[in-house]
Amino acid sequence: MKKSTKKVVIIICCVLAVALIAGGTVVGVNVYNKNVKEQQIEQILSDIKGKYDTFVNESDRDKRIIIIKNLENDLTDYLKNNEPVEKIKEEYQSDLEQMKSYFVTYYEKVISDNTLNEVEKITDKTKLKACKDKLTTLLDKLNSEKDAVLSSEKFEELKTKIQDLIDKYSARIDAIEQAEKEAKDKLEQEAQTIIDEDKEKIEEVIEPENNSYTEESNTAAESTDTDSNYDSSDDDSDTPNDLVPITPFELPDDYIYYTY
Q1: Closest CA to 120 of 169, 183, 182, 179
Q2: Is this prediction's pTM over 0.70?
Q3: How large is the average pLDDT for residues 60-64?
């Protein structure tokens, strides 16, 4: 019995040892796998952060759009090919939201800076045109960037807000230009009226003078005609041709000169 008992004890110890070894191996494998998974998670998170930092340090708008699109694709691939880790998923979504908020903040700031109050009272056409041009440029950016940074709802909200302002400014500019045209036409008409009235006054002054000058000219002409018809043969006055020649005075031969 002692030998049998001893043998049983040995067998049990061996079984326990094997069990402990196997259990330890399983635990070790699990710990290893867990460590590997944690390292993979940290590497993915580090990659996401690196792309976010690249976005922040990038000054080119188009390149920022490309970074957002690439990160969106990375998230899609991750969710498709892996069992999602909530920590990684949240990091992707958080960084993408912050990247996109840069553009949304820019859109809203441009809209705010170019929103004019009491537009119907504004008379500065240059100011209206400047705001309209900036909003038109913004609308072009919005259309080209919407797929990368905006939801369809947010896009429609911003687009409507921008277009309403553009339409309002355009209508006011048209009204100002129409008023300017009417004022210009009125001034030209008034100026033409003054010119016509002055012309009539000048003609009223000049016409009597012309008539007086014409009468004097006619009188002078008649006088000239009378002189030209004058007949010198009818004139009784002496002329050199009518003088009778005087015979030289002759003294008689017996004229005596007396001297005193």
Answers
A1: 169
A2: no
A3: 96
